[in-house]
Specification:
By secondary structure, the protein is of the alpha/beta class. 43% of the residues lie in helices and 14% in strands. A hairpin with a 4-residue loop joins strand 17 and strand 18. Helix 9 crosses helix 12. The radius of gyration is 29 Å and the shape is globular. Pfam families: CCG, FAD-oxidase_C, FAD_binding_4, Fer4_8.
Length: 966
Amino acid sequence: MDTKPRANETGTEDPTPITQRARETLIMTHQLPAAYQAFYEEICTKVPTNRLFTDPMSTLAYGTDASFYRLIPKIVIRVDNEAEVSAIMAAANQHKLPVTYRAAGTSLSGQAVSDSILVVMGDGFDQGEVLNHGAQLKVKPGMIGAQANKLLAPFGKKIGPDPASIGAAKIGGIVANNSSGMCCGTHHNTYHTLQHLRVMLADGTILDTSDTSSVANFRVSHKNLLNGLMQLSGRIQADEALKEKVRHKYRLKNTTGYGINALLDYTDPIDMLSHLMVGSEGTLGFISEVTFNTVADHPHKASCLVLFDELDNCCRAVTALRESAPVEAVELIDSRSIRAVQNKKGLPDFMYQTISDQVACLLIETHGADAETLNKQIAHIGKVLEDFHPSAYSGFSTDPAVCETYWIVRKGLFPAVGATRALGTTVIIEDVAFPVDHLAEGVRGLTALFDEHGYPDALLFGHALEGNLHFVFAPDLESPSEVARYDGFMKAIAELVADRFGGSLKAEHGTGRNVAPFVKQEWGDAAYAIMCEIKHLFDPENLLNPDVIISGNASVHLENIKRLPAADPIVDKCIECGFCEAACPSNGLSLTPRQRIVMWRRMEDLRRSGKAADELAYYRQHYPYAGVDSCAATGMCATRCPVGINTGELMKKLKGDSKKTGRARFAARNMQWMTRGTRIAIRLSHVLGADSMNEATKALHKTFKGIPILPASMPKAARQIQAPALRGKSPVVYFVSCVNRTVAEGTTGQQSLAEHTISLLQKAGFDPVFPPQMDKLCCGQPFISANAKEAADESTTSLNGALLAASKNGELPVYLDNSPCAYRIMQAQQEGKLDSRLKLFDAATFLRQQVLPNVKVSKQIGELAVHVPCSASRMGTGSHLVALASACAQKINVPDIACCGFAGNKGFELPELNANGLRKLKKQLPDSCQHGVSMSRTCQIGLTEHSGIEYASIEALLDACTTTGN
């Protein structure tokens, strides 16, 4: 993503005016307390009202994060620039109202929730810029960590922090929590890779450490603050015992309290200040930009699993690996965690055997700059391990798919507990760090506490090289006695980790609310007093995220605990982690998958209790659009969810079966007339003019919802497809989807996709064969989208017979030319609705495996944008599409668009969903990129509409770039 400005970055315009329709459904006259009402009225003049939320649905939905705490903000503000944040801070100071900043809401310890003002990062903060050929990355807090790494990938670099949530967590949270991760260790976290930082303090002052004039002005304007930091530094320097304690604590992973190592590591108070901001969890200021020094991302990687019969022996192996082996990551998985993943596929056989409580496993990864280096490292690690006599060893794999399987299992241990928890229980994850030489004792001590306090199902795993252990359990905190039991457990954990072993109560997840009452116990009176003074120096009114890190409430970890009541079996496993949100095209328009589940849980809870009838009535009025109608229901959320929840399935269930069953069955039985009628309508629309039809259909749709809104870039109707003559080559059955029989390729001509496909198949030595009466056939996908199941099943039955006849009962392969249709047909086969003998191929797979090797690429275009449709992602064939595109272009660009939101015919019915899903597309495409490609015809319509460039099919691209092969 580049840093081209957007029209709305001034904060004076509605970023996507079409979203006002969604906003109108969420506004409700809601009486705020007087101070908040005055604040709201003032901020309405600074921030567009479509990004200000006070209604019950929005505040509950946005107020949810991944932690086990629930606070509902009075006001939620989605901000796009520093000026808006400055205005918020000024008004909050004036009215003495607390403010909490939120990036992605994947924080686990309650540091991103508020019952006051919640400020959420908007699109204006989703920007990054690569500097010095990848040596640095300057990035704003709203960018997802994985996207930041995508910017750096061409340079062989990455940011140092690598939390397991990097695919959803944003830079703001990564920095504010000093997140680390699997390979990060203590050397590559934000603290140690920070180059520069831009921060807004509680008084509204901005310090940019990369700007010499900003620094010089700050030294004058905030002399007292800087002097205060110097004095605190001097106090630590003068206290040898305290100084040694600080050094010891930060030899471990440690995010408990403030990073007071900054007062020892640096002599300039500006450096002290910038590094204190790291890990400060929004309690000292707002970080609006950070510049990382990047680290090498070696292209050659290998992973292995090693099993040990005895925990002590396993931990001794960890020490040896830490001291002498070239390892990037060593993850410890205890016996209970091994048992928890024995239902996962793709692991070595020894992971499925019956194991004792003493067994432990290591997941090891090593990286190399080249294959030779990697092989030497693998051999060295193997020799180190031999001395500890592991009971089983998978050997290192360099296969990315195998390695990914190992790591997916490890990363899935947290949600695995959520997936198996009893309804109504809460999922808690904590992370502690022991000195590595006490790792085995720490594991045994924690396990004993699990049993002693009645949490025998708790899982234990973690980053063994750093002595960093995570434990996950699911307590039932519905009753006072259970809350008391949990409190006793946390106190015992603090005594074990902090007092007995001198470890860290929070290694990498941030202090939050859950450990705030124990900061003093871990650090002692002297260090805690310094931390309290730091908070007062930066935030004397205690308005920035109060009760996080520093709290005068000894019970804050026991208050406002989130309930997870039953809602529906489809989504009851959800732990509200938020990993799904990055893939959702309605994120920022209405609700995200996480928010849809939160709201439905609330509605079902109210329905069962019979309480708050007015609140429930309000939700019932507004949830149909915000939750059900504006859900793309493509299932992309399931691909990001650690336990595979498809929130779209719940939305389809809530929508109910189609009330137009008769019409749907008529359409299914008369598909040839439906496609012909649609072609005629498209031709008529082009006679009137695309722009005119766009405006006319918009107006008509307001009154008659059944009338589709035709986009200005609506393609022409496809001309009639002629069956190709057979030439005595290898036959392949070619099913042309109804959308490609109806809509032409591109936006100007009438040539169909089928013409390109036939040409391409013939170049590769195939004879395309149409199934009989193809004009009457449909895969059933349009009817599935409309919840017209009977019509869908009729279509599938007809298609099954035709494909069997054409393929000679499965002897010939079947080519499916539209990705969503291919996914639907393959699903139907898995469900037993299509004959298992049929050899089905989606376009990308067949083209890469059977066509590309048999044609000659005769020309390439310069730069090409590639969009992987949701269906291709779910089939796992996106890599084939990218490989095909790479063969036809000198450079490819894959924008970070998980789902475009066109969603079959939804792009014609709810164009704001498509506009929202693609709102970031244009700024991700450099001017040098003038061509795009995908493998879903409807997706291509929306992509063309919102990108400013033409998106073609992969078949048309290959046909244009290839000639007949040998």
